[in-house]
Design goal:
- The complex is a heterodimer of chains A (259) and B (255).
- Chain A has 259 residues and is mostly helical.
- Chain A is 84% helix and 0% strand.
- Chain A has helices at 2-10, 12-32, 42-51, 53-87, 89-103, 111-118, 122-146, 150-159, 163-200, 206-215, 219-247, 252-258.
- The longest helix of chain A is centred in the C-terminal third of the chain and has 38 residues, at 163-200.
- Chain B is of the alpha/beta class.
- Chain B folds into 2 domains: 5-78 and 155-251, Rossmann fold (3-Layer(aba) Sandwich), CATH 3.40.50.300; 88-154, no CATH class.
- Chain B contains 8 helices and 10 strands.
- In chain B, the strands form 2 sheets. In chain B, strands 6-7-8-3-9-10 form a 6-stranded mixed beta sheet, with helices on both faces. A 4-stranded antiparallel beta sheet of chain B has the order 2-1-4-5, covered by helices on one side.
- In chain B, helix 5 links the parallel strand 7 and strand 8 (188-193).
- The termini of chain B are far apart.
- Classes of the chains: A mainly alpha (259), B alpha/beta (255).
- Chains A and B meet through helix 8 and helix 9 of A and strand 6 and helix 2 of B.
Chain lengths: 259, 255
């Protein structure tokens, strides 16, 4: 409770800004005579959205499943490949440049292909989320596992410790902060991947919902869908940030922010 | 009898073809057991390269290093090592960092608790055992790194400009710590530095390295009594040593 009050106290400017933003939105609509099929007011979005709440919650669950599943698979593959590439000179000369060049392609461009190959179900969406999340994770992991300081490398060599032991006592913890840069970037992109995949071809999910209601000239419901997508994105990002705090509380950049 | 450490015609060339950089040597050095030897030279002369080759942490281009008649052909593990940038890891406390040395060597932490406390006390860090490195000043970090490098009682200690980034007062203090430890435990120390005063104060012998490619210009035995405290440092003999070394480097245009 004390923490909450402190948080409110430190965030009051931001809270005021948000209140002001929504008030401006609410009252500029009658003021400028904006038709509701172009831009609905916040109060109308809440009102109409809550009438459709069951559907919205169900679709949020659908999109959340695609996003989280894809994200976890990307995490496992990304870190796995990252470690493999960091420790194998053959992979570093083959897979690594391959990954870097694929990183330049907009992965979302593959979405229609995957839909046509795998149909409207869960799998093509998960694949697209994996594709969107995998590259930032793997590239940051490679960077992370290759940036151990020269001094620490010489230090562990002078102890005669096995590779496995050094990996768990030095290399892995030293790599975590940079890995989390990739994890967080991927977490931001994960919902984007799922939503666009649903735009292109699906019969449920928030992306599907938004594209349907927009087609029916219901921007109020589209905004309600966007709100739920935002909540989903924030939850995933918040969870990753929480994991970062739990796993690497010693990380300097976090300590500075906390002060 | 052979020497404890024998370095024969040791040479290092980095890169090849047009990018070739002749970094060090060839040089021949003998070091006795328990000797405190400083390797003194301008920056870029290859003195750190020499130290790493002696420790087997860097392959030489030609020549050889022998410890008690045994050829070095991989990293030596009965050593303690300290660099200008310390080897403390940010996710462990001071004590945890000291224990890291023991853990990596597969030693039993329980057997060392008393020694950890003692060595921390000897450098006035006993109140900071549970602090993380980024909570300490640069000098305190380096003292913690000192404990980390010494806790397993290495027979050979390699110091690569460990005081390079510290302020003058802290340097003075840590020099005294080095000297104290060396006088008690008598390890063999190879101390790489570009501070003439530091080299004269601490060592039995100073090896002067020329600008790159580093070769041995001469060796100077420092015949002063230990412990070399302020009184010794103010003595005319101390100044004489410092002056004669300065003259050598002046000749090379380094100072």
């Amino acid at each position: 409770m004390k923490k909450f009050i402190k948080w409110i106290a430190s965030g009051w400017m931001l809270i005021l800004f948000f209140i002001g933003f929504f008030l401006f939105w609410e009252y500029s609509i009658p003021l400028f005579d904006i038709p509701r099929y172009i831009l609905p007011s916040p109060s109308e979005i809440v009102l109409k959205g809550s009438a459709d709440l069951d559907k919205l919650i169900y679709y949020t669950g659908v999109t959340a499943l695609e996003t989280v599943l894809g994200y976890i698979i990307a995490l496992i593959l990304g870190v796995g490949f990252g470690i493999a590439i960091s420790f194998s000179s053959i992979l570093r000369r083959t897979l690594y440049p391959f990954f870097v060049s694929i990183e330049m392609t907009p992965k979302i461009a593959f979405a229609p292909l995957f839909i046509s190959w795998f149909g409207f179900g869960l799998m093509p969406k998960v694949i697209i989320v994996v594709l969107v999340c995998f590259f930032p994770i793997v590239l940051n992991a490679i960077l992370a596992f290759n940036s151990l300081s020269n001094e620490l490398t010489l230090f562990y060599q002078s102890t005669g410790a096995s590779r496995l032991k050094t990996f768990f006592s030095i290399r892995l913890p030293a790599a975590l902060p940079q890995c989390f840069v990739g994890f967080k970037y991927a977490a931001i992109n994960a919902t984007v991947g799922a939503t666009i995949a649903e735009f292109i071809g699906s019969d449920k999910g928030l992306g599907f919902y938004i594209s349907i209601v927009t087609g029916n000239m219901r921007p109020d419901l589209a905004f309600a869908g966007i709100f739920f997508l935002t909540v989903l994105g924030l939850t995933i990002f918040g969870f990753v940030t929480m994991m970062e705090k739990i796993l690497i509380p010693w990380h300097i950049s976090m300590k500075r922010i906390n002060k | 009898m052979k020497n404890f450490i024998e370095v024969t015609e040791l040479k290092k060339v980095f890169g090849n073809g047009e990018d070739e950089v002749h970094a060090f040597g060839p040089a021949t050095i003998n070091i006795n057991a328990g000797e405190f030897v400083s390797v003194l030279g301008p920056s870029g002369c290859g003195k750190s390269t020499l130290m790493l080759m002696v420790a087997g942490l860097l392959d030489s281009t030609s020549g050889k290093v022998e410890f008690e008649n045994k050829l070095v052909n991989g990293p030596k593990t009965d050593i303690g090592i300290m660099f200008q940038d310390n080897t403390l890891v940010p996710w462990r406390t001071v004590k945890g960092n000291i224990e890291l040395q023991l853990e990596l060597r597969g030693l039993n932490l329980k057997d060392y608790q008393e020694q950890i406390n003692n060595i921390l006390k000897s450098v006035n860090l006993d109140d900071f055992a549970d602090r993380f490195p980024n909570e300490l000043s640069g000098g305190m970090q380096q003292r913690a790194a000192f404990c980390q490098a010494m806790i397993h009682d290495p027979k050979i200690i390699l110091l690569d400009e460990p005081l390079g980034k510290l302020d003058a007062m802290t340097r003075e203090k840590i020099r005294a710590d080095f000297q104290k430890l060396w006088m008690v435990k008598k390890p063999t120390v190879i101390f790489v530095t570009h501070s003439i005063e530091e080299a004269v104060q601490l060592s039995n012998r100073v090896i002067l390295i020329t600008p790159r490619p580093g070769k041995i210009d001469r060796e100077i035995k420092i015949d002063l009594p230990y412990p070399r405290d302020l009184k010794v440092k103010r003595s005319p003999k101390f100044a004489e040593y410092v002056n004669s070394i300065q003259e050598v480097f002046h000749k090379y245009g380094v100072i």
